[in-house]
Amino acid sequence: MPDPIDIDVGARIRVRRKELGYSQAYLADHLGLTFQQVQKYERGSNRVSASMLVRIAERLGCTVGYLVGEEAGSGGNLENGLLGRFAKPGVTELVEAFDSIESPQVRGALLRLARSMAEGDDDFEVTAA
């Protein structure tokens, strides 16, 4: 099971990468990695070494302090936005469960269900189409 600190560092890497509009492949190419390795870093399943953390921070135009969560308010509203959402109970488990679903149809149905529930639509019908 990944360490919560590694998950947090990975989430900050992912959010910063997406904020810049970089794909995992783009970041991986510029770091001399495979995109799968970047995925593992972002999920927290592989720990980022200190030297790689410095290289990632340089490529993402931020500090190592930001990536390890030591800079309050760095990266705009992230602490109160996406990363703050990951701090809510059950969110990480929900994302992990969603990630383990292999069927695109089932993922789509689950996503439609969640959106419908968030909008308060009680008439949602789950179909695997």
From TrEMBL:
The keyword Kinase does not apply. The lineage of its organism: Bacteria, Pseudomonadati, Pseudomonadota, Alphaproteobacteria, Caulobacterales. It comes from the Bacteria. This is XRE family transcriptional regulator. InterPro entries: Cro/C1-type_HTH, Lambda_DNA-bd_dom_sf. PANTHER family: DNA-BIDING PHAGE PROTEIN (PTHR46558:SF4), TRACRIPTIONAL REGULATORY PROTEIN-RELATED-RELATED (PTHR46558). Residues 13-67 form the HTH cro/C1-type domain. Keywords: DNA-binding. CDD domains: HTH_XRE (cd00093).
